[in-house]
Hints:
3 helices; three-stranded antiparallel sheet; alpha+beta; disordered C terminus; five-stranded antiparallel sheet
Amino acid sequence: MNDCEERVEILIKCPHCGGQSSLVVAEAEAVSCGLCGLLLFEYETVSDQSGQAGMIYVLSNNEFPGLVKVGCTRRSATHRAQELNSQTGVPGTFVVEAYWGVDAPFDAERSVHERLLAQRLEGKEFFRVSVSEAIAVLADALGGPPAFSRSTAPEGSGDGSRRAGPQYPSVDWRLAK
């Protein structure tokens, strides 16, 4: 299965009644609680001319202080971090700090890498910048704030993450079979 065929199932617990609903991202753009009808989650799909969209992400790893990984994927940024974390030669855990949905991920990645060229480790997608500096450069390059940022939401959002924009109920991401 290539990146474009992968589907993600999202399980969402309703904060109103406790009911649980699911959404397979490849098939819908919103999900409501199956018990009370409350809108739980909405998203907007983006795609390039081939119909394939992607994400630009910023990852950090406590074992690599002062470095961030900036890259692109046609899957979720969380899935990409999980791929990196599953490699036995990688110390520590990669954490998704921020991501942007983009129409042309490879072009967008090239653009942000050019802006961070002076901080780039040769031949790698790692850059000697702080998370906040990377997010600021990418926001400028990509024309707006990230769809997700671990650093911008208030503490105690339930699932340990911090989100930009409106606060949604806790979300359990699982790859659909």
